[in-house]
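Private note to self, pasted from the team thread so I don't lose it. Backbone tokens:
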């Protein structure tokens, strides 16, 4: 396929790279020239604006950090909707079901069909091609685009035809992931302060019922070595948590635990840690506990 890609940051860059690995052609745009350069070096074409991408590609993928950026890229003066060739748009961003319904309607008026396609697995999953891909929209469009989606992961699931369905699934995933990271941070500091070897504790937990995405992935990848470089900023996680709580409120579902998770991360965020990696939350627990996890490896 010849595809457009707008937004090649922490997630977009490796996802675009996987498409090139899969033999697809790309035309790319990002507000940061340095982000585009590695893809251009691999023979991806470059474009000066989202509109220019949409003039060159029939199918365009977007990977953007905020709702405001998405709206501008989609509907702004130099946005995708102004392009002359675009007919299909693939959204990979976590933006909430209401926003997707709004944007799908607006883009539909411009003759653009949307496949909502949020992804999970973080930058490591994007690099390895092991993301979980959840999609909603036309089944026919999903089937047509699967050769591209399959480049990102082995689990590619169509969750419904209705706009926003995939967003709801992604928010379910993300609030579970956030809760796992929060309680893992507390539990590991507790065990370590009690004198238990950190690696031995993780080995036991990961073979038992406490295993989760933090104990199995985030902690070994970027807490044991104290790098706190998993690749996902706290600002982005806070956005996702707020969207999950808003979705629950819209559906009138009680969210007592989710609300506590929001307060947990919000405390760290309000200390100016928005640009820090999400795994740095362990340091907040360490501070209150008066105990620092040992550096391993």
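Design output:
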């Amino acid at each position: 396929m010849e595809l457009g890609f707008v937004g090649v940051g922490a997630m977009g860059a490796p996802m675009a790279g996987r498409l090139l690995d899969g033999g697809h052609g790309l035309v790319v745009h990002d507000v940061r020239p340095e982000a585009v350069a590695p893809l251009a070096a691999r023979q991806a074409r470059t474009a000066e604006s989202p509109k220019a991408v949409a003039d060159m590609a029939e199918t365009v993928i977007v990977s953007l950090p905020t709702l405001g950026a998405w709206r501008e890229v989609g509907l702004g003066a130099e946005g995708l909707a102004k392009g002359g060739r675009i007919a299909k748009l693939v959204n990979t961003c976590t933006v909430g079901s209401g926003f997707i319904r709004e944007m799908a309607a607006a883009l539909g008026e411009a003759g653009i069909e949307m496949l909502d396609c949020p992804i999970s697995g973080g930058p490591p999953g994007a690099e390895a091609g092991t993301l979980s891909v959840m999609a909603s929209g036309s089944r026919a469009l999903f089937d047509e685009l699967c050769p591209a989606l399959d480049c990102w992961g082995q689990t590619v699931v169509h969750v419904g035809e209705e706009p926003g369905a995939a967003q709801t699934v992604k928010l379910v995933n993300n609030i579970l992931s956030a809760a796992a990271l929060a309680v893992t941070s507390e539990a590991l500091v507790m065990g370590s302060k009690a004198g238990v070897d950190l690696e031995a504790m993780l080995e036991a937990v990961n073979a038992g019922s406490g295993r989760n995405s933090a104990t199995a992935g985030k902690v070994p990848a970027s807490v044991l070595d104290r790098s706190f470089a998993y690749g996902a900023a706290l600002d982005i996680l806070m956005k996702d948590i707020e969207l999950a709580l808003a979705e629950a409120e819209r559906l009138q579902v009680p969210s007592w635990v989710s609300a506590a998770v929001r307060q947990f991360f919000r405390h760290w965020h309000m200390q100016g840690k928005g640009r820090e990696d999400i795994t740095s939350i362990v340091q907040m627990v360490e501070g209150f506990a008066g105990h620092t996890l040992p550096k391993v490896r």
